[in-house]
Design brief:
Layout: E1 2-5, H1 13-29, E2 33-36, H2 43-52, E3 54-57, E4 69-71, H3 78-86, E5 91-93, H4 97-111, E6 115-119, H5 125-131, E7 138-141, H6 144-148, E8 158-162, H7 168-181, E9 185-186, H8 195-208, E10 213-217, H9 223-234, E11 239-242, H10 250-253, E12 258-263, H11 269-281, E13 286-289, H12 303-313
Parallel strand pairs: 1-12, 1-13, 2-3, 2-4, 4-5, 6-7, 6-8, 8-9, 10-11, 10-12
Helix pairs in contact: 8-9
Length: about 325
């Protein structure tokens, strides 16, 4: 059996930063630290951090007075920030810088007096946070069909922003529909969709041309992982989203000579290696990596963590 690994796959810079924030906060402040929502959408990552002393909560009211609170990589509404400030909770914000960029763009468009359209999936933590970061008139759409139903006049000045983990192709279609719907609309290019999302989607399209079965390592509640599975299926390849190696079913691989493996942006490489090990249990395998983009993006840690390290060093 041949195994071909997508390149790139797995952790993006925003996830690396978020996980490091929790780990360094534990080192500097000691356990427990309280993380609002899963820091990223992956059970293994959350369990590893929980074992080190992180406590994951859904609402800020679950954080004890005086305890350190960390906001997840998905971002939070301004109301949550205000609640933390009112309670004088020490806070470290692990919001991905690319998500923060969307917040800034949305606020700028709102300040210009434009109705803001957010392209994204209702209920996703990133979308909930973005909706709560933009003042004024904000509307959420997820598809071309929903654009037609927007309660806005065709000449209403408008603008759009996007959830970072969406499909580039799907977003492009919605943006085109918005331009047809409104005579005065502005917004960022689809290139502003998260670089890691674009790179992983491009790699999966190329990988799907070369394999008989495609395995996507990622959580069921991970938007970008689900989209990787959808892209594989659209390419006509049997494609399965798996949280870990134990989920792989032998029946999926029967008759397959080449297996493709990729991982969502919040899935650690250790999970990919465990999937390979499970396949080895069933017979000899040859592992190669698909040529692709080598990501070297790095995001700075929050000043509060860096300042604490500087004080400790001195």
């Amino acid at each position: 059996m041949r195994i071909i690994l997508a390149q790139p796959r797995g952790f993006c810079a925003g996830v690396v930063r978020a996980v490091e924030i929790v780990e360094r906060a534990l080192e500097q402040h000691g356990a427990p630290v309280f993380v609002r929502h899963e820091i990223v959408h992956n059970r293994r990552v959350v369990e590893d951090l929980r074992a080190k002393g992180a406590v994951f909560v859904e609402e800020l009211e679950e954080v004890p007075d005086g305890a350190l609170a960390i906001f997840s990589a998905h971002g939070v509404p301004r109301a949550v920030e205000a609640e933390a400030a009112l309670r004088r909770l020490p806070v470290i914000d692990a919001t991905c810088p690319l998500v923060s960029k969307v917040h800034q763009e949305g606020r700028r468009y709102a300040q210009l007096g434009r109705a803001v359209v957010l392209i994204g999936h209702a209920g996703h933590p990133e979308v909930v946070g973005t909706l709560g970061q933009i003042p004024g008139e904000v509307h959420l759409v997820a598809s071309v069909a929903e654009v037609a139903g927007l309660p806005l006049a065709a000449d209403r000045p408008a603008a759009y922003v996007t959830q970072t983990t969406l499909s580039v192709d799907d977003t492009r279609e919605v943006i085109e529909a918005l331009h047809r719907r409104f005579s005065d609309i502005i917004g960022p290019d689809t290139r502003d969709i998260c670089y890691a999302t674009q790179n992983r989607q491009t790699a999966v399209r190329e990988l799907a041309k070369r394999v008989d079965v495609l395995l996507v390592v990622g959580a069921a509640n991970s938007s970008n992982s689900n989209r990787l599975r959808e892209i594989g299926t659209e390419q006509g390849v049997p494609c399965y989203l798996i949280p870990d190696a134990a989920a792989v079913q032998p029946d999926w691989l029967r008759g397959a000579e080449t297996i493709g493996i990729t991982a969502g942006a919040s899935a650690p490489e250790s999970l990919v290696q465990e999937v390979i090990a499970r396949l080895r249990d069933w017979g000899p395998v040859e592992v190669t990596a698909l040529p692709g983009i080598v990501e070297d993006v790095q995001f700075k840690l929050p000043p509060a963590l860096l300042e604490s390290e500087t004080r400790a060093a001195s």
